[in-house]
Write a structure and sequence with these properties.
The strands form 3 sheets. Strands 1, 3, 4, 6, 9 and 11 form a 6-stranded antiparallel β-sheet that branches. Strands 2, 5, 7, 8, 10 and 12 form a 6-stranded antiparallel β-sheet that branches. It is built from 9 helices and 17 strands. The termini are far apart. The protein is of the alpha+beta class and 358 residues long. This is GDSL-type esterase/lipase family protein. One of its GO terms (molecular function) is carboxylic ester hydrolase activity. Keywords: Signal.
């Protein structure tokens, strides 16, 4: 009887060992994060478009413990550089099975937040490795670094909506398909994306403008402040003024009155506002190449004054590392489609290759 008990105990221990999981907490140094990431109550907070968490492991599968603030965000699951699936998150904390049943061996798993911060924070508590899988060395940091400041175009608003309805709800937004991320991916560059749909330099469709948002760690927390010493980009791309170009002509809009009173800004004021923001970014990054961009929506259509405002602003700063680049007007309704975002990326890549050494 005693021998049977010992055999059963040994088999139980072996069984438990075989099914045991390795837990990697969100603060573990083996996880490589991209973008501005806050940490609170044992969780990494993924807020910004393009925030990601990457981990190397040797084994057959991996899970993640996640919770979404409002249950509206989507994460891309990327294994060894290939997108496996998109995960719609829940507002309750769950263990999500990211991938399982792999051939045992080295793998890289990345979670990429494709939706913007207005849909809420995504909390990553950690990863769970399947069976006898083991954690590997932290993924390497890329040498090149790029940062984008933008609006809905940069977020990837409605890029997945093929119906022509131009819907900006979470199922149709994907920063992974935006010109911004496509450009970073092409250059194998570290990626930071500071963007919100509807935002402007002087005025937005809501009470927040880029000069008030650009320095936030957690954009939903007005008291949070980003430490710019943590990430120094080689290239900064600023694609703004699309929303300003509409709102300066709408004196009935509450934000027009909020920002301008009763009178629209004149050319001198528009140029000065843009220059002030560029000077702010230059103070944060004294050596960076700054590309003042615009497009590819109607702010760059033929006859628009807005590319000229940006050109005058940039030239007036007398800085050889501050450049301009305008995406051709796409000539279609709504926000850029997947094809149009790729065309923007191709255009920007070509410009950077020709004009910037990094």
């Amino acid at each position: 009887m005693r021998n049977r008990f010992l055999i059963a105990l040994i088999l139980g221990v072996v069984s438990l060992a075989a099914t045991a999981q390795t837990i990697i907490k969100s603060t573990d140094s083996h996880i490589k994060y991209s973008g501005r990431i806050a940490f609170k109550n044992g969780a990494a907070i993924l807020s910004w478009s393009g925030n990601s968490a990457k981990i190397n492991f040797n084994g057959t599968g991996i899970k993640a413990s996640l919770k979404d603030e409002f249950g509206k965000n989507y994460l891309k699951v990327i294994l060894d550089g290939t997108v496996l699936k998109d995960v719609e998150l829940d507002s309750l904390q769950h263990s999500y099975d990211l991938v399982s049943g792999l051939a045992s061996g080295p793998h890289t798993l990345e979670l990429f937040k494709r939706t913007e911060w207005i849909f809420g924070r995504t909390l990553l508590y950690g990863f769970e490795l399947e069976g006898d899988s083991k954690i590997e060395a932290t993924p390497l940091t890329n040498t090149r670094k790029i940062e984008f400041y933008g609006n809905s175009i940069t977020c990837g608003y409605a890029v997945l909506d093929t119906t022509g309805k131009d819907r900006g709800t979470p199922p149709y937004e994907d920063n992974y398909l935006s010109y911004a991320y496509l450009t970073a991916k092409h250059f194998n560059a570290e990626y930071s994306c500071i963007a919100r749909s509807g935002i402007g330099v002087m005025v937005s469709w809501f009470p927040l403008i880029m000069p008030e948002m650009y320095d936030k760690l957690d954009p939903a927390d007005e008291k949070s402040t980003w430490n710019f010493n943590k990430y120094t980009p080689d290239v900064v791309v600023i694609n703004l003024f699309q929303n300003d170009s509409w709102l300066v002509k709408q004196p009935q809009h509450p934000e027009f009155a909020h920002r301008f009173g009763a009178k629209a800004p004149d050319e001198k004021q528009i140029i000065a506002a843009y220059q002030n923001f560029i000077k702010t970014i230059r103070k944060k990054y004294p050596q960076a190449n700054i590309i003042c961009a615009l497009g590819s929506m109607d702010a760059t259509r033929e006859g628009s004054q807005w590319p000229g405002y940006i050109t005058k602003a940039a030239e007036g700063l007398h800085d050889v590392k501050i450049k301009t680049h305008f995406f051709p007007y796409k000539g279609t309704a709504g926000h850029p489609s997947k094809t149009e975002q790729q065309a923007m990326a191709d255009d920007l890549i070509k410009y950077i290759d020709k004009n910037i050494r990094w």
